[in-house]
Batch of 3 targets.
Target 1
Amino acid sequence: MSQYQLSQNHVSSNLEGESVILDHQAGTYFGLNSTGTVIWELLQKAPADFETLKNEILSKYAIDEQTCSADLKNILTELINEKLIEEV
């Protein structure tokens, strides 16, 4: 099973429950809403697989599992495309 981890070329800060990330290599900023911040903060601690991330979101938000899975896939794809996380 794949795991996700943060890439090495960024710095982040939490501002009022949302994350702001600076990608040093690209010189760009990226913002995450509160759900994205939950994912980001979990990955700051250690690599995590899809199920772990999904279960963390389900424990914090009133959302059905199908919607959670679809939304999580989308944000992980976006973070990978932005080179902020990587699949290992």
Target 2
Amino acid sequence: MGMNKKGNIYSVILISVIIFMVGMIMVNFLKPEITTARTDLNCASSTITDGTKLMCLNVDIVLVYFIILVLSLTIGVITDKLLI
């Protein structure tokens, strides 16, 4: 008599929804910091150097990377219980 390793799928979905909600709440804390970084780097100026342009692109993409991280984490939690 082996144990069921899948567990209760509803609890896994609930945990993944909680992870997703906390991640999306954290996005609201990242937005003002990104705006501050863009202002400090003077990204709106047309006379910035190439290195500063690269830093501005990196600052801009942080929010997208964070959202992808949260989505992959929630999908990973769900598929972990479904595949084992």
Target 3
Amino acid sequence: MKKNIALLIVTAFALFIISELSVRVIDWRGGHSFWSNAHRNFLVRETKPVIPYRIYGWNLYKTIGGEQFIVSVHGERYPLKKPGDAFRIVTFGGSTTKNFVDGVHYPLLLERRLQERYPEKRIEVINVGNSAYTTIHSLSLFMFDMLSWNPDLIIVSHNINDLLNAYFPHLTPDYSNQYGSKFYLPQYKNRLTTMNALFGWSSFYWFGRERIGDFLSDIGYKSAGSYRRASYGNEPPELIKQLFKRNLETFAAVARAHAIPVIFGTQPFESSEDYFDIAMRHRPFNGVVIWPLHTELIAHHKKLNEIIKEVALEQNEYLVDNNASFNDDPSYFVDFVHYQRKGLEKLAENYAAFIITNNMVK
């Protein structure tokens, strides 16, 4: 019996060492150091610093050969010091602005379209949209980063991510009811447990922990199979309407103080419940969020689009009604708010036509 137990322990230890070496060799072949714990850093992000004001995101700046560049959400680089012949546009939004299909996103398509129309200019359209970003995230970027870039025009298109805060418990003016939760803060994954303390040195441990965690989470979401709903009425909560309008008005006020024109864009919406289900059924926060009835969600989203129109009119800023031009056509969408390539092309054409018609490239 003692020999069998000893053999079992030795075998388990040998398998663990083999697995550890295998993961580290794979990391090494992928460009990481054999000795560093790449999985721990990449998957758990324990060493990823908090970037003040940006909440979460990517590194906006890169220095190459002594010159500093702006880096868009998809890696395109632009000189931090704007060239004299450049017309610089910055696009703000959430995942619908970040939306990337077949190697392109709408700001890149817009850049190409405007560059064709104005070959004598250097057209720059910098995409700073990011998944889950709201008006609050974009305002932070605008005030603490983008103003230093001297943009000639900004495009702002938000809706669903701001609206989602109304369905998380205890809505707060800074949206911390959502973005202070464990679903968004990486430090919740970095807590020091006994297992982490014992095996934190092991790449195989972190690799296995993430894969098993993803597997169990997926089973849990699929077994739950849906989300909770309750009736909110056809008007979204009053506070979210006030906050959304306040933030858009702040965008306009800051831009006006720096003589930067603003195009506010409404957010297209595909109204079928099946398309909503594609995007939201297995979201990890569905155990916390209480969704409205689907007909109410459509009405709430429409109301926030109406607020965008109101702000553009009241603040004497430009408006592109993307939602009207998409006309609830499912061929533009992959789910209720994200786009196929055709949708990205439609967005780019909407903005390009508006900019050209209004002679905005000076």
